[in-house]
């Protein structure tokens, strides 16, 4: 069985708000403001793949391949996946390509999945930890013509398909999906990401990571440019806040209370 886990590199969500900056021209977070990390839900997806492989040891060999779309620096999140014992990792270079919206990323991943045929299962985080779009997994499933199950926390393999434990508004439900399938993974107490071992981290740092380019996958990429830009960010800004402090004067507590009530009424708070 071949399992592909799609991972994404984002600015660390734990960055202090006072250090966060925007690049107004790119309508994105400014570069260099914080550490770049793997999106948390993608870490959950890697954990689900690792648990699936462990449960299948006696039944069927499972190969886990980590994929990401991004600049050369995105190789760091692939090394994180390798340090967690993914079997292989591949970087799809976005250099020279269109703006990476959900449709473009899904199109590139579809081409990569086709190149890695046969593939039995594709896992994505339910959403990225920065924009929280939640689009790539369903878009990819639609492009592949495969079943898509969202908000999955655990996957079991059965004859001809998968049983997936899925979070819903009413609680948890068990969904059957035919092979091959796409699943978007949510966080749960059953898929808390494990910590890599020091030896595996050192091996991952030296592991070669193949780089696939857009022309390799989709030729001249004319179709990608035609689909990009459907969702445009017109403006991005950090909310501004202001604070003011006014002392309520008075000789007695009753006098201060009366002036406080008067001030609140003047501001139409009362």
Structure summarized in a few sentences:
With 270 residues, the protein is α/β, with parallel strands linked by helices. Helices cover 30% and strands 26% of the residues.
Shape: elongated
Number of domains: 1
Look at the structure and give the mean pLDDT. Answer: 89
Low-confidence stretches: none
CATH architecture: 3-Layer(aba) Sandwich
Write the element-wise H/E pattern from the N-terminal end onward. EEEEEHEHEHEHEEEEHEHHH
Profile the largest sheet: 9 strands, mixed
- Could you name the CATH class? Alpha Beta
Number of helices: 8
Structural class: alpha/beta
Please list the strands of the largest sheet in the order they lie side by side: 11-10-9-12-8-1-6-7-13
Report the end-to-end length measured between terminal Cα atoms: 66 Å
User: Strand content of the residues, in percent?
Assistant: 25-35%
Task: Describe, in plain words, how this protein is organized in 3D.
It is a single chain. With 270 residues, the protein is of the alpha/beta class. The termini are far apart. The chain has a single domain, classed as Rossmann fold, CATH 3.40.50.620. The mean pLDDT is 89. The chain is elongated. The strands form three sheets. It has a nine-stranded mixed sheet, with helices on both faces. Strands 2-5 form a two-stranded antiparallel ribbon. The chain has a two-stranded antiparallel ribbon with strand order 3-4. Helices cover 30% and strands 26% of the residues.
């Amino acid at each position: 069985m071949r399992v592909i886990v799609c991972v994404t590199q984002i600015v660390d969500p734990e960055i202090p708000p006072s250090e966060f900056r925007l690049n107004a021209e790119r309508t994105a977070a400014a570069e260099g403001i914080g550490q770049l990390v793997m999106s948390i839900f993608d870490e959950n997806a890697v954990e689900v793949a690792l648990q699936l492989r462990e449960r299948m040891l006696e039944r069927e060999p499972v190969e886990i391949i980590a994929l990401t779309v991004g600049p050369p620096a995105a190789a760091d999140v692939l090394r994180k996946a390798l340090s967690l014992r993914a079997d292989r990792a591949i970087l799809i270079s976005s250099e020279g390509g269109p703006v990476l919206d959900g449709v473009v990323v899904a199109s590139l991943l579809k081409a990569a999945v086709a190149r890695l045929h046969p593939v039995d299962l594709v896992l994505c985080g339910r959403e990225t930890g920065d924009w929280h779009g939640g689009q790539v997994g369903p878009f990819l499933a639609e492009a592949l013509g495969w079943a898509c199950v969202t908000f999955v926390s655990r996957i079991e393999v059965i004859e001809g398909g998968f049983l997936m434990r899925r979070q819903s508004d009413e609680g948890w439900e068990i969904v059957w999906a035919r092979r091959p399938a796409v699943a978007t993974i949510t966080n749960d107490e059953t898929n808390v990401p494990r910590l890599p071992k020091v030896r595996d981290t050192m091996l991952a740092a030296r592991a070669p990571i193949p780089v696939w380019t857009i022309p390799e996958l989709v030729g001249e990429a004319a179709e990608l440019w035609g689909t990009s830009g459907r969702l445009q960010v017109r403006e991005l800004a950090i909310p501004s806040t202001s604070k003011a402090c006014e002392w309520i004067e008075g000789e007695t507590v009753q006098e201060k209370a009366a002036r406080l009530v008067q001030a609140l009424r003047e501001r139409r708070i009362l």
